[in-house]
Amino acid sequence: MEDKYLSITAITRYIKHRIDNDTNLRTVYLRGEISNYKNHSSGHLYFSLKDENSIIKAIMFKSAALKLDFEPKEGMKVLVTGSISVYEAGGTYQIYVSEMQEDGVGNLYIAFEKLKKKLSEEGLFDSKYKKKIPKYPSRVGIVTAETGAAIKDILSTIERRYPICETYLFPCLVQGEYAANDIIQKIKKADDYHLDVLLVGRGGGSFEDLNCFNDEGVARAIFACKTPVISAVGHEVDFTIADFVADLRAPTPTGAAEMAVPNIFDLLNLTNQYKIRLNEAILKKVKYLELVMDSLKSSFVIKTPNMLFEQKRQTLDLYEERLKELLLKKINDKKILLNQMKKNHLLNNPTVLFEKYKMILTKEIEKLELLNPLATLKRGYSITYLEEKVIKDIKDVKKEDVLYTHVSNGVITSKIMEVKENG
């Protein structure tokens, strides 16, 4: 009777086996609130997930926890991905978490990745569409909030680095429900000002604060902008869709200003270097020309210009003599050829050639006569036809057939009265 009783270990292992082999529990997605949170010294995270009515234990091993980009806290609402199994020692089921995101922000991240993939596949991030940022702009536009650290940093940086540049502010909302549409309108407006470069961005903030720069409409407005655009959103670690579609991404608003304009002191130093190098080049050129001039002054040709003319005249005389020699040789060759033709036997005795070809023609005519069927007829032979067919055998004809016999001077028509074979 006692055999029917199982051990606690056996039933726990059975339950674990059934749960582990349930495909519906291998990958689950849960939304809940963190409670009983503990960050163990091993790096593993132990906590529970609860909602209004239930609670489940959870563990996130160190390898997965290292991938988190936020610090989980007690009471934080999260979205988790993991698998359900049984912890045998405790006899409890729990979720082994492989991924975790903040709820709300997590949805924004999902939407961010989805839009990023869509625009990337459309080619909006391709380098071939990136416009070149001019080195020395004279008109710089800025699309950002009219107050705050971002606009102050941008303007002060441009004033310090390149005060000869004109700046145009297009103030807009950079946070909240209406920010995206306002940014789009200001980008389009700035694009009509014939600017050399346009800075679009804001200072740092949370992911939700920066989310208006993850708007699809803002991305397409930047892509369609004819003016080169530098994105300047948040801090160096922050990335938005605007960063990927812009012609150049700056880590901060201050960095954007530094990328947009050169340092005037660097330009002054460069100008001075060019000035020094130009002076050196001019002096070097002058010295070289002076040497050339001195060389020309002492040149034999300059001192005796007639000598150059005489040398050319001598060359001309040489060419003239060569030409005469060539012409005389050509005339002599033609005279020799003409004399040879005059001495030709055939030209002096044309009848010999005529008689030769006459004899050849006569022989050919004789050959043709031998083959001429009419000559055969003249010797007393004839050819008999039956309906244009030559009669070669007595069996080719029958009584009453009409025959046509060709002789040398005409045709005889006859009708067969009788057909008789020899023998």
Note the overall shape.
flat
Helix percent band:
40-55%
What value does the average pLDDT take?
A: 87
Q: Helix tally?
A: 14
Give the biggest sheet: 5 strands, mixed, barrel
Structural class: alpha/beta
* Major β-sheet strand ordering: 1-2-3-5-4
**What is the ordering of alpha helices and beta strands?**
HEEEHEEHEHEHEHEHEHHHHHHHEEEE
- Give the CA-CA distance, first to last residue: 135 Å
Q: Provide the β-strand percentage band.
A: 15-25%
Q: Could you tell me the number of beta strands?
A: 14
User: Measured on Cα atoms, how large is the radius of gyration?
Assistant: 56 Å
Could you name the ranges where pLDDT drops below 50 across 5 or more consecutive residues? none
Textual characterization of the structure:
By secondary structure, this protein is α/β, with parallel strands linked by helices. 45% of the residues lie in helices and 21% in strands. The chain contains 14 helices and 14 strands. The chain has a five-stranded mixed β-barrel with strand order 1-2-3-5-4. The protein is flat. It starts with 7 loop residues before the first helix and ends in an 8-residue tail after the last strand. The relative contact order is 0.06. The model has no long low-confidence stretch (mean pLDDT 87).
Key words describing this protein structure:
423 residues, alpha/beta, 5-stranded mixed barrel, 5-stranded parallel β-sheet, 14 helices
Present the secondary structure layout:
Elements (H helix, E strand, L loop, with lengths): L7 H13 L7 E12 L5 E6 L4 E6 L1 H4 L11 E11 L4 E11 L2 H18 L16 E6 L4 H13 L4 E6 L7 H13 L5 E6 L13 H9 L4 E5 L7 H5 L2 E2 L3 H8 L3 H34 L2 H4 L1 H38 L2 H4 L1 H22 L1 H6 L4 E4 L2 E2 L11 E6 L2 E6 L8
Parallel strand pairs: 3-5, 6-7, 6-8, 8-9, 9-10
Antiparallel strand pairs: 1-2, 1-4, 2-3, 4-5, 11-12, 11-13, 13-14
Helix pairs in contact: 4-8, 5-6
